[in-house]
Amino acid sequence: MPETKSEITSESRSETTSENSVDAPHEQALRPHAEDSFAHELKALAAADDRPRPERWRLSPWAVATYLLGGTLADGTVITPKYVGPRRIVEVAVTTLATDRALLLLGVPGTAKTWVSEHLAAAVSGDSTLLVQGTAGTPEEAIRYGWNYAQLLANGPSREALVPSPVMRAMSQGMTARVEELTRIPADVQDTLITVLSEKTLPVPELGQEVQAVRGFNLIATANDRDRGVNDLSSALRRRFNTVVLPLPATPEEEVDIVSRRVEQIGRSLDLPDAPEGLDEIRRVVTVFRELRDGLTTDGRTKVKSPSGTLSTAEAISVVTNGLALAAHFGDGVLRPGDVAAGILGAVVRDPAADRVVWQEYLEAVVRERDGWKDFYRACREVSA
Ligand SMILES: Nc1ncnc2c1ncn2[C@@H]1O[C@H](COP(=O)(O)OP(=O)(O)OP(=O)(O)O)[C@@H](O)[C@H]1O
Ligand SMILES: [Mg+2]
């Protein structure tokens, strides 16, 4: 049925882009897509890249990995690191996308699964927007296709009345589709993906046709293994994926590096002033989060209880960003203990009873005794009262 393919293929990206840009030109978007924010890096990489590219890939696997991990090109262009972590993880993820197996990014909340998925799609296909957001209410149509009901009622089922899902568009255009939070999707709806991933086709029985995936198509799914109310991934579906587990940052330095980079980027997009002396506070937030997460102080001497929240790197980033906004609007622009204390309290105390006890114990046993942490202790006491 080659005819089907070409008809549905004609649903081109330019159409989606112009649609989106009517709503928000990407220079004005609050959060531009990765391919727009880092367009100059992607362009420089494409120009410098002389390695073989899999069909319909914008870059070679090497260049995609460089885009994610950062580096300096021969022409001097600096590629900023997007993902900070083991190189091998990125290499395995990129390589998977060049095979016939899909990629599943798994990990606890806030380990950059969504972030990595977006950047991979941007680098491989130049488009990270072919996205299905998984929820408990995600219907099959979100993965397969839906109908334009006005057209359907007027003219019956036809190609014009068919509304392709992001997955269907990715298949017909040979692009990367993304499914966020795969395990939140009800099991029977998840199973829709089995045919897509193993047969590389999506039947449209109403039209007696099918959409076949063209070369270049692949899919990245993310799932976290911590949240409640989550459906299992059926083993049939799991076998269609290569699973890559994203770890928490290995060392405090790595985590401080991740937080400062992201805070700087986010701060710039919110027009917050730079906080040259903010690094001390970032270190402190990261230390508190890691110690509470690990149940042990950095020096390995004191055991502490862990609260119920995840205290992820992502939460550390938002605590510091909020602190910077406080410092900018109500302080002297320098990030101080008082600007992050309330944010830390909010992240730690999720369960008002149990977590509050954990926090008080940590404050008194660890924070109070630590050299140079007097101001921070006082600020925390103030907001905890
Ligand atoms: N190792 C890392 N390298 C770079 N950025 C990181 C890293 N870990 C976390 N981040 C940052 O944390 C933020 C949150 O990440 P993201 O939303 O992708 O997490 P997630 O794993 O999808 O979490 P969730 O399970 O809650 O959906 C991003 O801004 C990302 O930049
Ligand atoms: Mg996510």
From TrEMBL:
* Pfam families noted in UniProt: AAA_5
Q: Which residues form the ATPase dynein-related AAA domain?
A: 103-241
State the organism's lineage. Answer: Bacteria, Bacillati, Actinomycetota, Actinomycetes, Kitasatosporales
Q: Where is the composition biased (Basic and acidic residues)?
A: 1-16, 24-35
According to the record, the residues making up region (Disordered) are: 1-35
Membrane-crossing ranges are: none
**Gene Ontology MF terms:** ATP binding; ATP hydrolysis activity
Which top-rank group of organisms is this from? Bacteria
What name does the UniProt record give this protein?
A: ATPase
